[in-house]
Design brief:
The chain is an alpha/beta fold. The protein has one domain: Spore Coat Polysaccharide Biosynthesis Protein SpsA, Chain A (Alpha-Beta Complex), CATH 3.90.550.10. It is 25% helix and 26% strand. Strands 1, 4, 7, 8, 10, 11, 12, 13, 14 and 15 form a 10-stranded mixed sheet that branches. The radius of gyration is 19 Å and the shape is globular.
Length: 262
């Protein structure tokens, strides 16, 4: 399957991690010296997916500002104040060639509505979807091949994490037979995000501001036999709490960075 656009959900309020930073949206909280969103995008780009659609909401202007001033923020530069303030940028390892579309999908919109509101930016083609607040070492190439083989509307990555997330029950053919949003501690896998979606996913979505992607649409996909599950047993970590941030930050500043393939 050809390289796809990657839609990233960046609009939530991040209320559970305000103690780390209340001034920026959660995807812009830094681990190491750069926002977690940058690490995530660099990971996708490593697999050839370098076109992004960012679904903005809470403090979306901070994300816009980061990319509008990207070179000045991530690279050394020389400014010649005697020549119309000419700027020469110096190459660093943060050099990237991404194409980034930033879309204001509403301050209070839930995840399903946000995805629906960027439909015209992904056009009539398969695309990838993920959340802007977690990292993994999922083989995105293998994920896409699995999605093609299954031939379903949606594929979600199933991981084995703490039990406070949406749980997936998977049958022997690799399809979801049940989806429970954030159950009490139970066994099995949970949704780690990292979706691959066919354009038909928009038939399951609408513009209602309260539409949560992980609720009605996911359950309808399961009911229709259209949700495949790619099983991932290696590194996956979200950033919901101060403890999560501390863990990821320590990884980013050490040799233990499972997502750093570049």
């Amino acid at each position: 399957m050809a390289d796809m656009k990657t839609v990233i959900l960046c609009g939530g309020f991040g209320t559970r991690i305000r103690d780390v930073s209340a001034d920026v949206p959660k995807p812009m909280i830094t681990i190491g010296q750069l926002p977690i969103l940058w690490h995530l995008m660099r990971y996708y780009a490593h697999f050839g997916n370098d076109e992004f659609v960012l679904c903005l909401g809470y403090k979306g202007e901070v994300i816009k500002d980061f990319f509008l001033n990207y070179r000045a923020r991530t690279r050394d530069f020389t400014i010649d104040l005697g020549k119309d303030e000419a700027i020469t940028y110096h190459s660093r390892e943060t050099e990237v060639g991404w194409k980034v579309t930033l879309v204001d999908t509403g301050l209070n919109a839930m995840t399903g509505a946000r995805v629906k509101r960027v439909q015209h930016h992904v056009e009539d083609a398969p695309f990838m979807l993920t959340y802007g607040d977690g990292l993994s070492n999922i083989d995105l190439g293998a994920l896409k091949k699995f999605h093609v083989k299954q031939g379903k509307t949606a594929t979600v990555t199933g991981v084995r994490p703490p039990g406070r997330f949406g749980e997936l029950v998977i049958d022997k053919s690799g399809l979801a037979s049940e989806f429970n949003e954030k159950p009490q501690a139970t066994g099995g896998r949970i949704s780690g995000g990292y979706f691959v979606l066919q354009p038909q996913i928009f038939d399951y979505l609408d513009d209602r501001e309260g539409l949560v992607f992980e609720q009605e649409p996911m359950r309808s996909l399961v009911s229709d036999g259209e949700l495949a599950v790619y099983e991932h047993d290696d590194f996956w970590q979200c950033m919901d709490t101060h403890r999560d941030w501390t863990l990821l930050d320590s990884m980013a500043t050490s040799e233990r960075s499972p997502w750093k393939l570049w």
